[in-house]
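Chapter summary example.
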Amino acid sequence: MPGNVPPVADEREGLTAYLEQQRHVLRVAAYGLTDEQARATPTTTSALSVGGLIKHCASVERTWMDIVLERERQGAADEYQAGFRVEPGETVADILALHRHAATETDEVIAGIADLSQPVPVPRGVPWFPQDVEAWSVRWVLLHLIQETARHAGHADILREAIDGATAFPLMAGAENWPETPWMQPWRPPS
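The structure predicted for these 191 residues follows.
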């Protein structure tokens, strides 16, 4: 996927394209990391890791699709608690597959909804959800997923740079095999 979202024809295509772009840049932060590096928490003040952020975003998408579909899923509460942690034995490949699976499910759910204005009930008893709003729309949920994924993609960029100095665009150039230019050298794994 190039560094920018291509032109879009309508609102639905725009929302889903921007969500996929943010998912992609989040995953790119893990490009070339070892399993150990993906679980590393390189700052002294945070327990965040690149792998944990990707796992969290997968959990967030799954939770929001549960809310949209008004379904209860076994293990969702446990998934939230473990969402930021890369467990022993989990690999970068496992986490990326989990994230892609959640993204595919979101895409399928959204494709099956004819009207983005469809109401999505606001869950009760969650302190960060407003108590004076009855429902959001599917459109709002997509915008929220874009916001949440973009926020954590930025976190992942900072963590990645702290791990090995790699930054977003050279990583993307390396992951996507962009040609080398005088102003952009694709990131390559150390030899």
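To summarize the output: The CA atoms of residues 67 and 120 lie 7 Å apart.
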